[in-house]
Each structure stands twice: as C-alpha cells, then as structure tokens.
Amino acid sequence: VVILSLLMYPVLRSLALQLHSAITGSYISGTHSIAFINCLNEQIAKDIARAIMDKKLAAYVNILPKSLALYFWKGELEESTEVLLLVKTRTSKIEELSNYVRSIHPFEIPEIISLPIDQGNPLYLKWIEESVPRD
After folding, report:
1. Do 38 and 72 share a structural domain?
2. Is the domain of 7 the same as that of 44?
C-alpha cells in the first residue's frame, strides 16, 4: 500500500492542482514553457518556426535577430552568428517539440532547451492553453 501510494503521488498531486486551478482560476506554475532554439540564419529560423506552428506545437514563436555566439565544438573555440527562436507552448509538448525540431534542424546537435513559465499575464497564459491542443 505504501509503495502504491508513493507511485500514485505525482498523479494525484497533478490532479489536485488542476482541480484547484479550475475552481479558483489560479495558474499552475510550470504548465507552460518557453523553448529556446538556435538557428544558423533567418531563413532556417522562419522555416523551423513555420513548421512548429503548422504542427500546432506552439502558440507563439519569436524570431530574434542575429547575435554573436561563442562556443566549444569538437575541442575548438568557435564564433558564429545565430538567430534565436523563443517558442511559447505547453510544458507537456516540450518533448514532442524537441523531437520534431531535431528531425528537421540542419545542426548536428541543435540547441533546444526550455524553461517553465512560473507566472505571467493570466489572459496570455490562457491563450497559450487554448492555442496548443492537449496531448
């Protein structure tokens, strides 16, 4: 019984938070995330952003202009310019988003990292929720 209780805790906690959110209208921290994806140039960034949107893996994608990047690659210090995508989505979609982007991205190891959204404009967060279909 103790083991079953421990195994069920995350599921029960999640359901309790969702119920609390539905009743009170409060936001559950971490329900949505921002993913950062680097791209070689603006055209690749636009193509990946459009593909993400076409698959309904995000509600919104910002394409930030070129920035200088310094990094180690295969033991050497490299310098290049990159374009950054900021992808707003459900946290539950991050794995699918990451898998999809890796399948279409030209980089051998693309940067795809995410951070949970702790708080924000409730109307904007609700819009993300409505724009990205559930799993």
Report:
1. yes
2. no
Domain extent at residue 104 = 31-131
- 3 with 67, same domain: the answer is no
Instruction: Outline where the chain has alpha helix (H).
Output: 2-24, 42-54, 94-104, 122-131
CATH value at residue 87: 3.30.70.120
Which pLDDT tens digit goes with each residue over 98-128?
A: 999 999 999 999 999 999 999 999 999 999 9
> 45-89: per-residue pLDDT in tens?
999 999 999 999 999 999 999 999 999 999 999 999 999 999 999
Contacts 24+ apart (CB under 8 A), 49-54: 49/85, 49/87, 51/100, 51/104, 52/85, 52/87, 52/97, 52/100, 52/101
Indicate the length of the chain as a whole number: 135
